[in-house]
Amino acid sequence: MTLIDEIDESIRLGDAYGRNENLSDVLSDAKALFSKIQDSQKDIIKVFQDAKNMRKIGLISGNEVSDILNLLIEVKEDVLKNADYKSNKYGLIIKNVKKEQEGINEIWRRYLQKEIETSRSIVETLNILIENSQRYNTLVGLYNDIKANMRPGNKEVLIKIKQYKKITDELIKDLNLKQSILRFFEKMADRNVLSLSDITPEVWDWIHQHHFEDRFTVKITGDRH
């Protein structure tokens, strides 16, 4: 704090003393509020930074954190005008920070699910058909890097997502996976086991064309659908 800040603080405390029986109560409230602010400052900065990053890529509007900002302003005004250090509003700020951070994290999780998880399931299913193991290893490395850094809107993660999708698209193109073939592998990635009825003539032609007959097995079960 600057000298002027210290003087202002003394004036506020002096004013509070004139309206309170015990100055130690005011000082205790001030210390408690200061401690709350110190403890939660990193969380507040993080939620605002994450909101900024998510807004940049169009995943949120940015208004999600406006309530937190308004409450912070109210707490400041209470302290400046009334020397009110009890600040029940600050407890509400902490709750809002937690709520908004959880919301932002969930939006980011759904975004990753949409952008890479479905593609990853297909890649893992196609793994045994991928002759270029280096490309597969690159995809695995990118995926692990993305999952290791779950900070919402992280710029490096966005770059890696773009790389992952590009390599996956190239893989699908090289294997000549038309939509009907792609749907077959999407089903396989989702269920792990398919029935013979899922192997359409177009799918069979694709398997035969790429000489993948020996990569598939047939198993008889007692289940009836």
Sequence-ordered SSE layout with sheet pairings:
Blueprint: H1 3-19, H2 23-56, H3 66-82, H4 88-126, H5 133-148, H6 155-174, H7 179-191, H8 201-209
Can you put this structure into words, describing what you see?
The structure is a single chain. The protein is mostly helical and 225 residues long. The protein has two domains: 3-107, no CATH class; 108-215, no CATH class. It is 73% helix and 0% strand. It has eight helices and no strands. The longest helix has 39 residues, at 88-126. The protein is elongated and about 90 Å long. It starts with a helix and ends in a 16-residue tail after the last helix. The model has no long low-confidence stretch (mean pLDDT 79).
| Unreliable parts | none
Radius of gyration: 29 Å
Structural class: mainly alpha
User: SSE order in H/E notation?
Assistant: HHHHHHHH
Question: Number of DSSP helices?
Answer: 8
Shape: elongated
Q: How many extended strands? A: 0
Q: How far is it from the N-terminal to the C-terminal residue, by CA?
A: 74 Å
How is the quaternary structure best described? single chain
- Main sheet makeup: none
What do the pLDDT scores average to?
A: 79
Helix content: over 70%
Please tell me the total number of domains.
Answer: 2
- β-strand amount: under 5%
